[in-house]
Every structure is written in structure tokens, then in C-alpha cells.
């Protein structure tokens, strides 16, 4: 167990930390967040109903410029109970899961690819301070930021937070954020700006329907490529938020599953973001659940990207699965479209010894290289008609397509033993 670390003002030293990461040090879980845990502890006696009180142990304390990557942070709890009057803002009541020495700026600690869950504090149940990238906050408990307070969030999911004692703001899941970019706030998750400093709000989704999104008093807020469920913005605050792209949608137009994956055909956030304003903190990263960050050429609004591979596979035909598709590959006018440098891999299951064909057409000066089961099948250049690249099935046929050069390539539905596959939509 790490030593208790002084922070803020008021009484100190009551909340010990399971792990303390020193200034400038990076702590990485070799095997990832699914199997690597930093576990705090609820109060052992005299605690409140959320476990805050004597004997509690916070999970992590991060000094300036420290980094934490790839852990599940669970059960972290502060040693100060809260049964009425809010206690002083100090290290004993703040950041049940993770407490950061600095909230923002060049010295702020960074937490990446972590799950913060079932933690409890007063200010910041899951976390207080710091920068969080591709993290999932789930089921955390607190009063002034059940999930987090004084944080910058990039590509994060906030869901299933548990507010403790209510106040006029309705116990926001996130309070006083510095930046919210590429995030998803699940149903019931509230956000209260609570600071006069500028808040960057881009490519994000807010699914609360009970007025949980509240800008700071009389301070205009610009939301770029963000989507809000009807009722998400607090009554009387609508005129303070300027929407640039995105918009307000009925719940059946913003459908997500329980892990906040967008539902195809029923979610306006799919391809609703803007690549141009994607922050550098997310460049080259996966999404919050470890999936590819961009499909179909345009980033989604929210923290979790819709996986287009099943859609691409269904378009190519029965028995097809798509293993990889470059982010810029799109489906348009009855074909998958590739440009210079793009690739796609597919496995096509067909009975052995059947004569089948991949179908493609190149327009322009580029070349499509096609491989089959690890060996070259064909190189295709510009043709006036769709070319059939015939082969005899081996059962499981691993196809690889890579296009290079000027122009475009179209990959059409494959031709099975009985001819062109008819796909009914």
C-alpha cells in the first residue's frame, strides 16, 4: 500500500493509496486492463452507505506528469464520509479511484486505456484531475462528479454513475471538465461545466433526457459535431449552446447498446463526427473499447466507433467475413471503394472445389493486387468492365486486396458457384 499523500487543504493523511506513481514515471500493465487490477477498499468501519469513511483506500495517486496505462481501477474509496455537509476539498474526500496532483496543463498526469469502476469519492468518485484518454468510467459514486471532476476527457465512455446526495445540479457524472472530445455520456449521465474557463466540446454524444447538460452561468458554449438526446440540455440553457454540426435527436435516432456501441441504422452519431477536429490526443489510437477508431472514412461522434466490417461482409456475399478494412474504405454504388494505399482482407467460405470469382474494376492508372491464401492471385489495372478473378475454392478462401496508385478500385459482390449472389436488403 502506498503512503497517504498530502493534497489541497484541510485534514490530510486519512486516505492511503494502493499505488502512488511518482512524478514523470509511467506505469503500464503488460497484459492490459481486462486482467490487470488496482483495487482500493471501502471503509472498514463507520463509513457512509457508499463505503466512504475510516479504513477506506484509494486506488491510485498520480504525481505531476505521471502516466497510468492499461489497468482496471476498482473499488477505490476516500476516507471521508459524506452524510450531509460537503467536506473540505482535500485529498481525503477527492478522487476515490484516481487522484491527480494537477487538474490540467503541461504538468497534468495522463491516464490511458483504463477502466475506472465502482469507486467512490465526494468530489470525483472515479477521478479528480488529470487527462484521460480512451478510458471507461462505469458505476462510480460521488456528489460533485460521480464519475470525474476537473478532468480533460478524450475518447472516454461515461456510464452508470451513481449520484450520492442531490443538489441543484442533480449530481453530475462529470463536473467542471476542461475538455470533452470524442466522448459518450450514457443515459442519465449529467455534465455541469461549473467554470468560466473555455470548455472544448467536440465529436461527443450526450444521452441524458432530463436536462443534465448545463453550461456555466451566462457563458456561451460551442458544441462541434456533438449529438444531444431530446431533453439533454437543461431547460433555460438551450440558447447558451451553439451547435455546429451534430444536433438534437429523438432517442430512436441515437441508439446505443449497453457498452455504448452505436446501433447501425438507428444512430445519427455514426459518421457524424469531423476528422478535421479530431484532437491529437486521439491520433493513431483505438476507440474506447479497443476497436478501430475510423471506419467508412469519417469518424463517429462519441467514444466507440461503429464497426463496418459486418456491413462490408454482408455486401460482398454469403459466407464472407471481413478481417480488416482501411479506415477510408467505403461502400458506395454497389461496391467497396479503395483508393491509393487502402487495403481489405476477407475470408470467404465456399464448398471445396467449387469454381468461384472475386469481382473488381479499376478506374485510373492504379493497380489492384489480389492475393488468395497467402499467394498472388492477380494484378488488375484499368478495365472497361468488371473483371472476374476466378479460382477454385479450398473451403476457407483468404482474400487480400491492396490498391496503389492514381484512380480508384471497386470491389463488387463475389460470384459464387451459382452466379452472382443476390443480396436482399
Structure in words:
The structure is a single chain. This protein is an all-beta fold and 425 residues long. The protein has 1 helix and 43 strands.
Concise account of the structure shown:
By secondary structure, this protein is mostly beta strands. Helix content is about 0%, strand content about 40%. It contains one helix and 43 strands.
Q: What are its keywords?
A:
425 residues, mainly beta, 9-stranded parallel β-sheet, 43 strands, disordered N terminus
Helices and strands, with pairings:
Blueprint: E1 17-21, E2 26-28, E3 37-39, E4 58-62, E5 67-69, E6 72-74, E7 98-100, E8 110-112, E9 115-117, E10 127-128, E11 131-133, E12 136-138, E13 141-142, E14 148-149, E15 152-154, E16 157-159, E17 162-163, E18 174-175, E19 179-181, E20 184-185, E21 191-192, E22 200-202, E23 205-206, E24 213-214, E25 221-224, E26 227-229, E27 241-244, E28 247-249, E29 254-256, E30 262-267, E31 294-295, E32 298-299, H1 309-316, E33 320-325, E34 330-332, E35 335-338, E36 343-349, E37 355-363, E38 367-372, E39 375-380, E40 387-392, E41 396-404, E42 408-416, E43 419-420
Count of helical regions: 1
Helix content estimate: under 10%
The structure class reads mainly beta
Major sheet characteristics: 9 strands, parallel
Amino acid at each position: 500500500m502506498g503512503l497517504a499523500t498530502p493534497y489541497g487543504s484541510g485534514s490530510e493523511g486519512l486516505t492511503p493509496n494502493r499505488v502512488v506513481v511518482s512524478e514523470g514515471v509511467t506505469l503500464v500493465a503488460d497484459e492490459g486492463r481486462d486482467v490487470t487490477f488496482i483495487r482500493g477498499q471501502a471503509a472498514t468501519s463507520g463509513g457512509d452507505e457508499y463505503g466512504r469513511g475510516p479504513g477506506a483506500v484509494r486506488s491510485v495517486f498520480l504525481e505531476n506528469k505521471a502516466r497510468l496505462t492499461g489497468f482496471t481501477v476498482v473499488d477505490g474509496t476516500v476516507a471521508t464520509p459524506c452524510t450531509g455537509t460537503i467536506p473540505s476539498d482535500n485529498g481525503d474526500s477527492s478522487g476515490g479511484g484516481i487522484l491527480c496532483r494537477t487538474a490540467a496543463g503541461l504538468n497534468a498526469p495522463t491516464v490511458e486505456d483504463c477502466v475506472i469502476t465502482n469507486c467512490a469519492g465526494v468530489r470525483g468518485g472515479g477521478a479528480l484531475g488529470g487527462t484521460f484518454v480512451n478510458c471507461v468510467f462505469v458505476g462510480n459514486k460521488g456528489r460533485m462528479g460521480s464519475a470525474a471532476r476537473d478532468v480533460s476527457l478524450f475518447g472516454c465512455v461515461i456510464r452508470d454513475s451513481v449520484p450520492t446526495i442531490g443538489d441543484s445540479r442533480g449530481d453530475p457524472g462529470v463536473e467542471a471538465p476542461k475538455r470533452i472530445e470524442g466522448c459518450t455520456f450514457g443515459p442519465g449521465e449529467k455534465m455541469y461545466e461549473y467554470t468560466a474557463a473555455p470548455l472544448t466540446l467536440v465529436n461527443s454524444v450526450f444521452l441524458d433526457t432530463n436536462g443534465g447538460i448545463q453550461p456555466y452561468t451566462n457563458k456561451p458554449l460551442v458544441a462541434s459535431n456533438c449529438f444531444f438526446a431530446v431533453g439533454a440540455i437543461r431547460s433555460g440553457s438551450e440558447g447558451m449552446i451553439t451547435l455546429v454540426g451534430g444536433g438534437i435527436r429523438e432517442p430512436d435516432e441515437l441508439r446505443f447498446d449497453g457498452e455504448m456501441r452505436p446501433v447501425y441504422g438507428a444512430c445519427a452519431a455514426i459518421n457524424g463526427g469531423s476528422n478535421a477536429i479530431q484532437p491529437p490526443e486521439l491520433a493513431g489510437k483505438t476507440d474506447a473499447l479497443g476497436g478501430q477508431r475510423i471506419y467508412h472514412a469519417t469518424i463517429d461522434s462519441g467514444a466507440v466507433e461503429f464497426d463496418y466490417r459486418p456491413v462490408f461482409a454482408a455486401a460482398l456475399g454469403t459466407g464472407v467475413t471481413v478481417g480488416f478494412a482501411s479506415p477510408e474504405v467505403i461502400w458506395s454504388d454497389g461496391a467497396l471503394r479503395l483508393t491509393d494505399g487502402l487495403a481489405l482482407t476477407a475470408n470467404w467460405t465456399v464448398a471445396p472445389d467449387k469454381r468461384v470469382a472475386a469481382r473488381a474494376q479499376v478506374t485510373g492508372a492504379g493497380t489492384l493486387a489480389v492475393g488468395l491464401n497467402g499467394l498472388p492471385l492477380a494484378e488488375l489495372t484499368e478495365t472497361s468492365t468488371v473483371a472476374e478473378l476466378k479460382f477454385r475454392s479450398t473451403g476457407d478462401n483468404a482474400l487480400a486486396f491492396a490498391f496503389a496508385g492514381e484512380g480508384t478500385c471497386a470491389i463488387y459482390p463475389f460470384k459464387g458457384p451459382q452466379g452472382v449472389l443476390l443480396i436482399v436488403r
